[in-house]
């Protein structure tokens, strides 16, 4: 039983609004992330968590205290935190001898772990180490994935989907062109994943589209893929299921061809040809006399009877 | 003439210059890629599927390589974004983004429609439709429009300072207290029904109503109360003693349910077909291997018998073998005897008549 089943009856309007904000919806709220560290986390990992928090900021919760839990062994505490803060993405940082500088990216569906991917930090440059003007907080980043591994390998495919989910920010109908500043670039080469964050400078090119120059602002990571926990195909499919109400309604009798030309099929009523106006001619006109004759004949019959 | 020539020359030069300028401009924003990038502009996302050159991938070179790669990809993404239809909103040029195309999992499953309550089921069955009532009604005593219910409602009888005692009621009873308890009981019953509806929706075991408070308990109610009290022990009333002459409570056992005489024909048909199917399945099935084995064994036996008989003829007589054959014959004789016995029955119609006198 989740909160949304209507068992908890709100007693005040405020609590009702609160419950409604957390209930499942047709078009969902943006996913928010909880960022936490495990029992042991070194300087690198905690700094990395803070930096990713600052990238994700309005839609993230940074846990200040240690949480002694191992997501790959027991995810119940994660599920509990997710329910508590209504977050469906998580980032867990830890450091130990076996897996130094460890980050676990993950997401949850219906308060249960869907995907978890463990990445080890090999090289890390923090946000503050690079002295550059940074992007304002809450900028929707442009995401670029490069490398064929992101389309070939199953784990990399999931990782790509997870990273898109994690970093894409709020889904918006429109975007201010001059405000496209931040680029997150993920490159998969030689079994490593390079995450780079750039500020994008729009230079004049002479035509409408500007020329792009990039400036690295950090944080930058060199990751290696470690353990993964991927959802089963059934669950993954279930989590992608969209409600029927969201699907666009099929428009009848309208089609488009390859060039985008719109075609419509029109259904015509059958034309009544008897009422068709043709050329008037004296010879074809109905005669009044005949009508009179017709009228007389029944009268005669009446007289007979 | 010479002037004309120079003019035409100038025009050509200018055109060529303009063309070159155009190419130069395009060059600054154009990027060559072997495979085209895949874009999802709704998410400001680009995917580069090209194979990456991994030769120069050490130290500082790696850094530059990544940056140039990022620049090219971002340039392509920006080119694509600038093609989108734009709009001017308060001195800011805004591009309208298309719907995101990358499938991403949902956060929570889509909302389910609320299952109907018991009342809603009943109302649907009976075709009872909800009537919309006006919120405000005319209050005669206050001479104004007031809400139908809730705070400051019309015809509010909770604030009366005097209540007439009905003739049938006990004169010592406090009518105010009675009204308040009645209200409380209604509220409690409503809450109970709400919980029962939730339990039904969750497909849990719906708890029995037990006893709902009523103004006067009838005999049936009392019997039911006694039975509920009896079963409300840790052992569900197993060790509870019965009073002498106490009858078991009515309506606690299982109730037989019958199908309606006329109604769901398809369900009835299905049921009958199911029954026929079951009867069909009871018939012994032909086990092919078993049958074949049996046949083979029989053939073997026949063959052996034939061989034996031949040998017997050759060797002379063997008493036992001969004896065995009549033994089988006995059974056949018996069967014949039965058949024979059947014949006389046909011959004796009088006996048949005697056996069933009542039916004729």
UniProtKB/TrEMBL annotation, chain A:
Keyword DNA-binding belongs to the record: no
Chief localization: nucleus
Xref: InterPro entries: Brix (IPR007109), Rpf2 (IPR039770)
Start and end residues of each Brix domain: 31-234
Membrane-spanning residues: none
Extent of Basic residues compositional bias: 277-289
Entry's localization field: Nucleus, Nucleolus
Name by which UniProt lists this protein: Ribosome production factor 2 homolog
Record organism: Hippocampus comes
From TrEMBL, chain B:
Its biological purpose: Involved in ribosomal large subunit assembly.
InterPro entries: Ribosom_reg
Protein name: Ribosome biogenesis regulatory protein
Protein family per UniProt: Belongs to the RRS1 family.
GO biological process: endonucleolytic cleavage in ITS1 to separate SSU-rRNA from 5.8S rRNA and LSU-rRNA from tricistronic rRNA transcript (SSU-rRNA, 5.8S rRNA, LSU-rRNA); ribosomal large subunit biogenesis
Sequence segments annotated as region (Disordered): 97-117, 231-268, 281-360
Ranges of biased composition (kind: Basic residues): 308-320, 329-341, 351-360
Subcellular location: Nucleus
Keyword annotations from UniProtKB, A to Z: Nucleus, Ribosome biogenesis
Composition bias, Basic and acidic residues: 239-249, 295-305
GO cellular component assignments: nucleolus; preribosome, large subunit precursor
Superkingdom of origin organism: Eukaryota
Primary location class: nucleus
